[in-house]
Amino acid sequence: MQMKRKIIISFSLLLILVFNSSILIAESQPNEIKRFAVLFYDESDAYISLVKEALQEIQQLNPDKVEFIYYDAANNQGIQNQQLEEVLRNNIDGILVNIVDYNSSEPIVNRAKENNIPIIFFNREPSTLDSIKSYGKSIFIGTSGCQSGNMQGEMIVNQLQKNLVQDRNQNNQLDYVLLKGPRNNKEAIERSRCVIEQINNSGIRTKELYSEFMNWDREITKERLTPILSRIVTDLDVIISNNDQMAIGAIEVLQQYGYNLPGGRNYIPVFGIDAIPEAIDLINTGIMEGTVLQDAKSMAEAMYITSMNFAEGKRPLAGTDFEFDSTGVALRIPYPDYIVRPST
After folding, report:
1. Any idea where the Periplasmic binding protein domain is (predicted)?
2. CATH superfamily of 33-143+295-336
3. Class assignment of domain 146-293?
4. What is the pTM of this model?
5. 87 closest CA partner among 105, 100, 69, 63
């Protein structure tokens, strides 16, 4: 009987030890380093490079909490699909996808769902959010294209009111060139529509001299704009671009025709979006007129917080002041401000 009591007591002690060990393990889980795969559509994109720098800074500040593993698809959806399969074979806690093809979100979400891995799409919004809505561990983090368009329009109106943008041919309207992102991109569509609406709603008449889809790309802009500019430059009041890369491409074309040169007299205002360092330098030297600030650090911070929440079994927006938009799955990072050429 005494032996039996000893066995029972020993077993009870063992259970207590196992239970306490389980508690210690459970309590240590949140402190384990979480590993997230970051799939970029193209690291050569100037804004994406800023997001990567911001993520690297977050990891440096939190070395005992997070590790980001980066993949560059070089603007090729096939490569990104292969990278996704590689990621799924590794022991990771979540996936962050900057999608190449806006129409390819469904199979990507399905693969994450099959493996029960949280997946966050960021920056490049899929053509539909339906697949993201279908999986409780998936969200989109981006911006509002219309907000950036409105801010760009407000910036142009303000520069007009200061006589820093002028009616060069005195026809009582703003004659413009509009450089757009990809044809089916939601952000590009909204930026293009809302910037012109904002200008018109301010009581300013506008006339489009030329508009083209330039796919966010500086070199494409130079190639397509060069043969056009000579025919319209005398009537042109302003160039409006959906992003800074295309704006800089337009400036390089203008410089071929003797405009927007350092210290030069001939100048046509060029406006962009993103506030990449090169654009800010051009603004400060008086070669570019202005840009809307897209906050890469805030984007990276939202990616980090929501990824960690998912990995720790929490709701993605837990412990934050963030709110989803009307879709219930999209978090929109606001554009904080714009930057303009110093007045002389």
Report:
1. 36-314
2. Response regulator (3.40.50.2300)
3. alpha beta
4. 0.87
5. 69
